[in-house]
Structures are given as C-alpha cells and as structure tokens.
Design goal:
CATH architecture of the largest domain: 3-Layer(aba) Sandwich
Structural class: alpha/beta
CATH superfamily of the largest domain: NIF3 (NGG1p interacting factor 3)-like
Number of domains: 2
Shape: globular
Bound molecules: zinc ion
Number of strands: 12
Oligomer: single chain
Length: 255
C-alpha cells in the first residue's frame, strides 16, 4: 500500500494533534513509497533496524522514535549509524509516543491493563477515568480481590521479570493507578487520588520515600516491559485491516 494511505489511517486513529509531545509523532524519516512489510517494536534502536533490514521491510513502527526534545541534534556516533542504515535501506520510520500511551484501544495503558488483569474505571460516558499530567494516569481495580503480594506475583508472571515494589505485601490491593514507561513523576497524583498501588515502568530515589511515608505502594515493573503491548496491538490492527505483513520484535531490555 501507499505510505500516505497508511499514515492517514494511523493519524486519524491516534490523533497526534491532541498531544503536546516531546518528539514528532507520525512519519519521522521518509522511506519507500510502497509498503508491503512493517516491523514493529518498542524503540527504533539499531537492533530493531537490523531486524527490519533482515525482514526486507519498508517501514519500522515504534513507540520510541527519534528527535526527542532537548537531545543533541547533531548527526554523529550511534545516531549517524542508525540514520545511515534507515536511509540506505529506504526504510520509513514511523513513531507514536504519547498518542500510543493514551489510546483507548491500542494504547500502552489499556494493553498493560489487559496483561495484568486490571479493570479500568470508566466515567458516565464510558471513557476511562484518567488523571495526572496530560491525563496519562489510568485508574482501576484488579479483576479479583488480591493482596499486594499476590498482585506482584501475578505481574512478575505476566511480564516475565521481577518488579521493584515498595509496600506491604499483606495490604489489600483494591484501587490501582498506572501509567506505562517512565512515569514515576506522576506518583504524587496517584497518592492524591487515594489509590492503594501505583504502577509504572521506572523508579527514582524519591519514590521509595514517598511510598513509605504515604502508605501507597509503588511498583516499578520495567519501562520496556510495560510498553511492549501498545505497538504490538497497533501492528495487529494494521495487519487485520490492510494487506500488509506486520512482525513485532521484542528486543530485550532490562530497564
Ligand atoms: Zn516510554
């Protein structure tokens, strides 16, 4: 299919204009006009580019693209290498950051909830209840009564990695807030909302103290691990809708 047709579906589905983001959303690097194969992954790293080259794809679709605000924009070192590979192989680089966190069907938050068995709280219009900066934090409850310790075990099993948790394993885990990726800075918004547990991908030093002092548990379940599911779901939707081959590659990342 034509690149423009794919982009127009992606942009009308993900509505990037609604977000004040830290990077350009949509087409970041222009490649071939005709697309038959897409490789998806969390981050447009050299390892993912190599997978796309190997698969003879014409497009890479990711959550973490390039050209982040505040980054050194000069083209050298690893940045030059990545760009050279994408240009040499006529690859389109397509990235959606915040729009792919927040989307009610394909977003990282809704997809992580599915993986962890969390039921999102909905407002009277049937939309997810959200809060925190840019309304990126979701609220909900586990699909059965669990203690924090039981929920942690469930998470470790589902994500294939042991989360970092500050909290009493015997305390009940009824109201939960979550935001995938590096959203440790939104912990206080979750504390203010009165939840039992806040889940995100990363932890910094202050959150351990905030958790102990507030009594609200904090779980760092992995930036990569919590953001694998949105782009994967989006890729599946593309494959179902269009005559395209879409392959998701999970490039392991301990962070
Ligand atoms: Zn992220």
């Amino acid at each position: 299919m034509e690149r423009s047709e794919l982009l127009s579906w992606l942009n009308s589905t993900l509505e990037p204009a609604r977000f004040a983001d830290y990077c350009p959303n949509g087409l970041q690097v222009e490649g071939a006009n005709q697309i038959t194969k897409i490789v998806t992954g969390v981050t447009a790293s050299q390892a993912l580019i190599a997978k796309a080259v190997q698969a003879k794809a014409q497009a890479i679709l990711v959550h973490h693209g390039w050209f982040w605000r505040g980054e050194d924009p000069t083209v050298r070192g690893t940045r030059r290498q990545r760009l050279a590979n994408v240009l040499t192989h006529d690859l389109n680089l397509i990235a959606y950051h915040l729009p792919l966190d927040a989307h009610p069907q394909y977003g990282n938050n809704v997809q992580l909830a599915k993986v962890l068995g969390l039921i999102a709280h909905l407002d009277e219009k049937g939309q997810p209840v959200t809060g925190g900066a840019k309304d990126l934090v979701w609220f909900g409850s586990p699909n059965e009564p669990l203690s924090l310790g039981q929920f942690v075990a469930r998470t470790a099993q589902a994500l294939g990695r042991e989360p970092v948790v500050i909290g009493d394993p015997n305390a009940p885990c009824r109201r939960v807030a979550w935001c995938t990726g590096g959203a440790q800075g939104m912990f206080e918004a979750a504390i203010d909302a009165g939840v039992d547990l806040y889940i995100t991908g990363e932890i910094s030093e202050p959150q351990a103290h905030l958790a102990r002092e507030s009594g609200v548990a904090f779980m760092s379940a992995g930036h990569h691990a919590t953001e694998r599911y949105g782009v994967k779901a989006l890729g599946q939707a593309i494959a179902e809708r269009f005559d395209l081959e879409v392959s998701f590659f999970d490039i392991d990342n301990p962070a």
